[in-house]
Amino acid sequence: MSNVVLEKVSRKFGEFAAVNEIDLRVAEGEFVTLLGPSGCGKTTTLRMVAGLEQNTSGRISLGNEVVSDAASGVFVPSERRRLGMVFQSYAIWPHMTVFENVAYPLRVRRRPLAEIRDLVSRSLRLVEMEGFSERPAPALSGGQQQRVAIARALVFEPKVLLLDEPLSNLDAKLRLQMGDEFRAIQRRLGMTTLYVTHDQSEAMALSDRVVVMDWGRIQQVGAPEDIYRYPANRTVAGFFGNPNLLDASVEACARLEGGRVQLDVVGHGWQGRCEAATEVQPGQTVTVMVRPEDIRIAPAGTDKDGLRWSGRIAHTIFRGPTRSIVVEIEDGRLNVDAPAFGGYSVGDNVTVVVPRHAAWAVG
Amino acid sequence: MALSADDRIADIVTARSRLPHVRRFLNGAPASRVVGLTLLALVLAFLSVYPLSMLLYGSLHSTPPGVAGVFTLDGYRDIASQQNLLTLLNTVGIALAKTIPSLILAVLLAWILARTDTPFRGTLEVLVTLPFFIPPILTAMAWGMLGNPQVGLLNQLYQWITGSTASPINVYSYGGVVWHMMQYSVPFLFLLIVDAFRAMDPSLEEAARMCGATRLRTFYTVTLQLMLPALTGAAILSFIRGIENFESPLFFGSPAGIHVITTDIYDSINQRSPPQYQYATAISFVIMALMFLIILMQWRILRGRSFQTVTGKGYSPAVMKLGRWRWATFAFCALFFAVTVVLPVSQLLIGSFFKFFGFYEWEMLTLEHYQAVAGSSEFWRAFGNTMLLGLVGATLTMLLGGIVAYVSVRTKWRGRRLIDAMAWLPWMMPGIVLGVGFLWGFALLPHAIPIYGTIWALLLAYISLGTPLSVRVMSSAYGQLSYDLEECSRVHGAGWLQTMWRIMIALVWPSFAVGWVLIFFGIMRELSASVLLYSVGSEVLSVVLLKLWANGSAEQVSVIGLIMMAMVIVFRWVQLRVIKRWIGAL
Ligand SMILES: Nc1ncnc2c1ncn2[C@@H]1O[C@H](COP(=O)(O)OP(=O)(O)O)[C@@H](O)[C@H]1O
Ligand SMILES: [Mg+2]
């Protein structure tokens, strides 16, 4: 059963389509992240689910209920969609205490006072803020405000939780910690979660599935590992990490077990084997993605089944756990992640290799 | 021409998608909202568009309001006279002459109080801004007594000190008009610009110092340049208020034969017999055209130049250490307060205890003026009217302003621009012009709506005059609230009404209170529209004062003036103490 369903959902501002024909199904209890560069339509998508923005075409359902259908004119207002939401600014009401902020969803639903007290303290305990309930809201730090915003979104146990870049206003360390904590809470309560971020590492660390968006369209949907390893196109490939992208033309193509294909490719001064998702006609050009951490600096003559380049070390950058090495090859420059203390020096002539399964060709 | 299959399909598709569009609009604008917006638009139209169109009607109509007549252009023909050219020059010239020195004084005061270590800055700031809250009619009368060329206290003092018989001070002159206007312009400009001085990021100045600029050079090249948009905007506003000003030219200009447009309008209705309504109405259009030109100029000058060069809270701007000079700056501020507040209030005090104005001898001391005022039913009626109009008027104006500001700032509803524009319209109309417009408007209403000559006429005029200010106050209050606060409430289950009540109103009411006090002050001081619209039974204090003054009862004027002054100080105190604390608690 799906808990959030978007069918061909678009949102136009005048002629400009901020969100363009999006299809997405989020299963019950699933944690799905919308990921993409700023301005790609993530917030707009989330706001359409929340009912804060009206889709100009398509249909949105929550559970079994259609909440917005542009064709039939159905539109259920926000307050009747029974959602929890955490805003990027946290939207903590400055005129209320922490308790009143968290109690708000219950108060507007006219729950009995004893129940409110009970649920609020449970919710505050969940985010470890039970000692702060009488604090006025402006007297909170960023991290505390964020916890209160989560407690408020959880307090009436909504079926679906929406979060719009909730960690972006926190410093790097707190961001990691809050992300992990929130994921643990989400697992424990089992809420369906739609999470928006532009931070790829956050998306990979938290999500069951990642939805990569660009220009208002979905580029790829999949588990973080799959998207990282097997991006569907150049845009997605370039979005994660800092991969090497090399143009090549296809010589031969063969099917592999498990649906993928093996390509023999020729680039400018190099050749070898890589993998791809679908068959490519010989003669066509592809882009081969090779991640720095998959490249090894190797003694000559190893590894026939993959790609290899010879070149010269142009410069190295010490990064702590690894050393980034830039190898100058005929086709340009390759970024290689090598052991931090591997004894490489600028000017060395080296051969670098990548096994076939770590070289991925996209159209 | 034959349609291709593709074209026809495209037609069908667009036809289909047009239907939901219509439905969505209806869906998006529920009937209750349409009704509400229409009502709001009607109220605003009655308060602004109606008097404006009545002005046009009146300027073409040959007879007074409510009397059958013909349509002529005589009103406009009468305007074109040499006398009126002088009036126009007077109007613009006086406004300019008071704006420039006021701006210099205000910059000086703002700099002293925001950027130096002058002692008692907090108290001084309250004191130098106090004149702004005193009804101009009070200080005008006080200065009329102080600077009277025959028996004025200042001249008596001069004669007593020097032993000569000359009286060098005569407030019934250009100088008097400009001087009286300046007492209001300086605190007004100060209030507009002081925050810009205070909120200035000190690192901008420090950077200039690091580059080797001297203190003075830094002030010219950085501080003043950054202030320039704020200063220009404030100066234009002050200039506009100078053109709209009524009290100063009425008290100090008219007796000396110096006429400006506002007093010319007043005289042609109240001082000539028969009253020249058509002429007054036509000349009202002249001043509105003038205002319109200035506002256009203001837009051109300020376009693209932000007032926000100096935003950002949390700076504690570098305070200049003045050393021994800080007592000089202290004395300067204190002197300003003494001249603009202490002197007129003392005059009122003295005037109220002596039998005859101008004859200050021991045996003349008396309390009879206080008894006369306390026993005057006219005074008590006017007092009651002023309080009633102040309380009701301020409340209604702020409510209207709050609704208009919400619609225009916080929603994307259709028609919000029209509503905003209508609420802004009275901004272009000086009080006296709006008074003339309503005079026609109320007189031409059907008899079933008896507003003409009642207290409701004044109430409606006050609301109309106050609405632009209340909209501005409430707009900036809403503007500071992120949309998230509202939307978050909706998502978490609160309907529109509940969100309004629990979130928006709860968050903006401190601004509402601040605006309320401002409007209340505005109503208490209002003279130019009141003097046209009152009738027996609906007098307000300012009108009673004017009538007493015209009858030569300077002594009773002093008593009533003191009472009003006490009210001003009490309200100002409440505003500073109580409301600041509420806001601080937020
Ligand atoms: N109310 C609006 N009017 C016009 N354009 C808008 C509006 N809201 C968003 N957009 C545009 O839609 C695009 C997507 O915005 P958004 O969903 O906020 O992006 P993000 O992925 O950064 O959250 C942006 O280009 C933005 O400028
Ligand atoms: Mg966003």
UniProtKB/TrEMBL annotation, chain A:
Q: Which domain of life is it from?
A: Bacteria
**PROSITE patterns from the xrefs?**
ABC_TRANSPORTER_1, ABC_TRANSPORTER_2
Instruction: Identify the residues that the record assigns to the ABC transporter domain, covering every copy.
Output: 4-240
Q: Name where it's found.
A: Cell inner membrane
Q: What is an example of a GO molecular function annotated in this UniProt entry? A: ATP hydrolysis activity
* Key words of the record: ATP-binding, Cell membrane, Membrane, Nucleotide-binding, Translocase, Transport
One Pfam match? ABC_tran
Stated membrane topology is: Peripheral membrane protein
Under the heading InterPro entries, the entry gives: AAA+_ATPase (IPR003593), ABC_transporter-like_ATP-bd (IPR003439), ABC_transporter-like_CS (IPR017871), ABC_transpr_MalK/UgpC-like (IPR047641), Mo/tungstate-bd_C_term_dom (IPR008995), P-loop_NTPase (IPR027417), Transp-assoc_OB_typ2 (IPR013611)
- One GO term describing the cellular component: ATP-binding cassette (ABC) transporter complex, substrate-binding subunit-containing
Would you identify the family this protein belongs to, as annotated?
Belongs to the ABC transporter superfamily.
User: PANTHER family annotated for this entry?
Assistant: MALTODEXTRIN IMPORT ATP-BINDING PROTEIN MSMX (PTHR43875), TREHALOSE IMPORT ATP-BINDING PROTEIN SUGC (PTHR43875:SF15)
Task performed by this protein: Involved in beta-(1-->2)glucan export. Transmembrane domains (TMD) form a pore in the inner membrane and the ATP-binding domain (NBD) is responsible for energy generation.
Full protein name: ABC transporter ATP-binding protein
Organism per entry: Bradyrhizobium niftali
TrEMBL record, chain B:
The record lists the membrane-crossing segments as 34-57, 92-114, 126-146, 177-197, 218-240, 277-297, 330-354, 387-409, 421-443, 449-471, 503-523, 557-574
The alphabetized list of GO BP terms reads:
transmembrane transport
One Gene Ontology cellular component? plasma membrane
Give the matching PANTHER family.
INNER MEMBRANE ABC TRANSPORTER PERMEASE PROTEIN YDCV
The record's annotation in InterPro entries points to: MetI-like (IPR000515), MetI-like_sf (IPR035906)
Q: Where in the cell is it found?
A: Cell inner membrane; Cell membrane
| Membrane topology according to the record | Multi-pass membrane protein
Q: What is the lineage of its organism?
A: Bacteria, Pseudomonadati, Pseudomonadota, Alphaproteobacteria, Hyphomicrobiales
Q: Its family? A: Belongs to the binding-protein-dependent transport system permease family.
Recorded hits in SUPFAM superfamilies, A to Z, give: MetI-like
Does the entry feature the keyword Cell membrane, yes or no?
yes
Please state the protein's primary subcellular location: membrane
| Protein name per Swiss-Prot or TrEMBL | Iron ABC transporter permease
